[in-house]
Write a structure and sequence with these properties.
This protein is an alpha+beta fold. Helix content is 49%, strand content 21%. It folds into four domains: 1-42, Ubiquitin-like (UB roll); 46-218, Threonyl-tRNA Synthetase, Chain A, domain 2 (2-Layer Sandwich); 225-268, no CATH class; 269-383, no CATH class. Helix 3 (46-67) packs across helix 4 (95-110), helix 5 runs antiparallel to helix 6 and helix 12 (313-331) runs parallel beside helix 14.
Length: 384
Amino acid sequence: MAEVAASIGAGLAKAALAGKVDGKVVDTSFTMSSNASLAIITAKDAEGLEVIRHSTAHLLAYAVKELFPEAQVTIGPVIENGFFYDFSFTRGFTPEDLAAIEKRMTELANKDEPVVRRVLPRDEAVAYFKGLGEHYKAEIIASIPSNEDVSLYREGNFEDLCRGPHVPSTGKLKHFKLMKVAGAYWRGDHKNEMLQRIYGTAWASKDDLQLYLKQLEEAEKRDHRKLGRELDLFHIDEHAPGLVFWHPKGWTVWQTIEQYMRQVYRDNGYLEVKGPQIIDKSLWEKTGHWDKYRDNMFTTESEKRDYALKHLVFAVAAPIGASHLHEFEMLELARAGHVGATTQVFEVAFTVEADVFVGGDAGNDLGFVVFTQTLEILHGFVAR
């Protein structure tokens, strides 16, 4: 790949970060063995920026291992506008640590060390990382099928497991900044160790980096948590992380908006209902949430029954609809065909709501509309 870029021109060879062969992004060291569609990727391409960010995550891990040899590396993916890398370490990284790590990253990038790929059989790779004391890496590799080979990338004294591709050398990584540290459980399981996650951003040019940092600065000025305190509307307290303590001014605003929305619903013929805040698990089993999201639900137990905090408006309102259907049938105020049609409307509403919520697409609103329409149909039948 590098030879192809060089044959086109010295400028392209210098700018090349990776290549694309038949639509697949590969390293510049990739060797073509047959005719294929080919493109050279530079920092001007979206794929080039992703390669930069991926490689900068490895550069971060390289710098951490240089400064804190006892730290263990885990994973370091690309995310929107940057990357992160998780580390197992005996203590939390401090702002001073981040400054030192970023400085070391710059020094390593300036050394312009080549990034070299090699392939090992899975079991050999497991043994290799165990020998380095990198038990998390060994665990990751052990989960790969035994008949598969794995690729490793080395830059200087640091070698990491990765599918790639990566920049040809660390000198291609010039415009980056470490942003913050957060906690993250190993493999996302709260039963596992809490790791140290370092977030960073990387860009193709200095101007792009500065523009992004400026945007973050402007967004910080408009942060709702900051404005809430400054305007004496609300605050977020450590006693309830992520939840709001409303002040008199803020609660007045909330009530005004709430009353306006209630009037809008009434004007458009909707009915309002209210259900309990905690519900027996049997309802969440029907919606599918108990099986799929139980670990992320707020649960409690009382008198040998499991409950979960309400997180879905329509699911809690559904029993109200069911009670209306039961009364309707018991009173025998409609023909059998009408009762069947009404029941069908309710069941469709319930199923659609569950499916939409699982997909993460504004399920509450759709479910509420369908539910209230169902109630309107019921009232129409009773009126007859």
